[in-house]
Amino acid sequence: GWKTEDVMDEEIKVINNMVVPDDHVICALSGGIDSTVAATLVHKAIGDRLHCVFVDNGLLRYKERERVMETFERDLHLPVTCVDATEQFLKLENNAFAKELENNLGKKPAFLVQGTLYPDVIESCPPPGTGRTHSHTIKSHHNVGALPKDMKLKLIEPLKLLFKDEVRQLGRILTVPYSFLKRHPFPGPGLAVRVLGDVTEDNALDTLRRVDEIFIQSIKDAGIYDSIWQAFAVFLPVKSVGVQGDQRTHSHVVAFLAVTSQDGMTSDWYHFEREFLDDVVQKICNNVRGVNRVALDITSKPPSTIEWE
Ligand code: XMP
């Protein structure tokens, strides 16, 4: 076992050895715990030679951009530029951040900070001799290996030996607000992995945002958010017949799920109260146009993964 304070001091030493006084470092903040804790740690080590970019890739949740920018600026004092890349999200790669910095500040960064965690490393490519059983690539969209091949930046990955609960502990020591640390994980590729099928069809992203917001807000109102590892909705490319008033409808099906987990490596479905489910399904069908059916995912991991894509 190791103490989180020791990990922090050790990582700050490592970063200060790697990054010489003239070097600049960039970090893409996703709004999640991992990149935020990684950036806060690097900021502690090298101060304002760290430059963070928050990219609104058009695949964020409802009001996400406003919510996270406020935390970065007001609570963490991180130097963050917000880039609106909604139009070009599919083409945007990490080296776009480097260009942004070069253009705006006239400085060429040498390093890129990534909030890679240990489970990302072992699920993508298990280090030899770890005795882990995940010997193949389970998911292709994890952060590891997702960088452009021609990237000249060296990587700083200060969390790559940590599990999520250890990152939360580290975040607490770095005074990242508790309300932020307890946020459910959200995948880097955003809502794209939660729209099964074409993301540009049938108003899928907006519909999903509305469903997700109602679902998550209901979970918070019920006081169960902290008991759940992760909860979210999935937009299915499937329509089914329904009836509203005296009209037949032919609308989309959405699924939602909530899971409990220690580290995201395995999970179990969260057992909601029946009244909670009745209430949330009614709210969704009454308030979200284009949805007439809600399914609940009760599969554990394995055999499923938590995300559907
Ligand atoms: P899966 O779906 O593989 O996910 O069971 C395990 C945990 O990792 C999150 N996840 C991701 N996080 N980039 C991320 O930063 C990704 O591409 C990604 N894919 C999955 C997932 O939400 C769950 O908490």
TrEMBL record:
One of its GO terms (cellular component) is cytosol. One of its GO terms (molecular function) is GMP synthase activity. The keyword Oxidoreductase does not apply. It catalyses: XMP + L-glutamine + ATP + H2O = GMP + L-glutamate + AMP + diphosphate + 2 H(+). This is GMP synthase [glutamine-hydrolyzing]. Catalyzes the conversion of xanthine monophosphate (XMP) to GMP in the presence of glutamine and ATP through an adenyl-XMP intermediate. The keyword Ligase applies. Residues 2-183 form the GMPS ATP-PPase domain. Keywords: ATP-binding, Glutamine amidotransferase, GMP biosynthesis, Ligase, Nucleotide-binding, Purine biosynthesis. Pathway: Purine metabolism; GMP biosynthesis; GMP from XMP (L-Gln route): step 1/1. It comes from Gossypium anomalum. Its EC number is 6.3.5.2. ATP binds at residues 30-36.
